[in-house]
Amino acid sequence: MAEQLGFDLPARAALGRDDFFVSDANAMALALVDSWPNWAGNKLAIIGPEGSGKTHLTHVWAAQSGARIVDAASLTKDAVPDLAQTPIAVENVPAIAKDAAAQDALFHLHNLTLAEGHSLLVTGVSEPKHWGLTLPDLRSRLEGTTTAVLKEPDDALLSILLAKLFVDRQLTPNTETIAYMVKHMDRSFAEARRLVRDIDQASLAKKRKVSRALAAEVMNS
Predict the structure, then answer these.
(1) Which residues, 6+ apart, have CB-to-CB distance to 98 below 8 Å?
(2) pLDDT tens-digit readout, 122-169
(3) C-alpha span between 125 and 110 (Å, rounded)
(4) Which residues contact residue 219 at a Cβ distance below 8 angstroms, ignoring those fewer than 6 apart?
(5) Nearest alpha-carbon partner for 166 in 153, 181, 184
(6) pTM score, two decimals?
(7) What is the pLDDT of residue 157?
């Protein structure tokens, strides 16, 4: 049977509060986000592995606080006065480790946002001291920020994550399929995303429904 060509179209992730499943791996981080507006120093850093929910939690907080969300790499000094007029979330700060201009912009955004009485949220994979920032004043300010840590998933969170990733792609695997994947896959958010993507592509190419058998074929290929 000829295989159908598949296209790796981006899935639309559900980023609402009700879509954020709580487990031991993320409960403390969520509690810290929910403690706004009582954050120490009026700022918080969300850290965790790729795909662990940093963007999801950022959107949860933005919906709660009215914050705007920007990517660190897009920051410019000219935009700082406007951005500092509301709570602000800056995602993926480690990406500007080699961008002196973006670091300078974030430094001024940090100071002006707090001076205006608003809150600042930043995100990165690891602790701020490992972000590679070269602007000393910015580095010291972010290293002193309280961190909300998202851990690698436990079985409960991994099961829900897989189900959510499939639903984001408009797929509905049965519980047997999810249980098989959890038992046999590497335990990481990145691996969950890769497997769901590959199973989706295999389903399209082979014109087969998502099932335990198809998941096993993909995972053992």
Answers:
(1) 132, 134
(2) 999 999 999 999 999 999 999 999 999 998 888 888 898 899 899 989
(3) 19
(4) 181, 184, 185, 195
(5) 181
(6) 0.76
(7) 85
More confident: 121 or 14: 121
Per-residue pLDDT averaged across 30-51, rounded? 94
Beta carbons within 10 angstroms of residue 207's beta carbon = 10
Average pLDDT, integer, range 65-92: 98
DSSP string, the chain: -PPPP---PPP----SGGG----TTTHHHHHHHHTTT--GGGEEEEE-STTSSHHHHHHHHHHHHT-EEEEGGG--GGGHHHHTTS-EEEE-GGGGTT-HHHHHHHHHHHHHHHHTT--EEEEESS-GGGS----HHHHHHHHTS-EEEPPPP-HHHHHHHHHHHHHHTT----HHHHHHHHHHS-SSHHHHHHHHHHHHHHHHHHT----HHHHHHHHT-
Asked if 46 and 54 count as a contact pair (C-beta separation under 8 A), the reply is: yes
Confidence (pLDDT) at 188: 85
CB 125 within 8 A of CB 47: yes
| Burial zone of 64 (CB within 10 Å; 0-12 exposed, 13-18 middle, 19+ buried) | middle
Q: Which residue has the tokens 């600042």?
A: 120
Q: Which of 140, 134, 141 is nearest to 43 (CA)?
A: 141
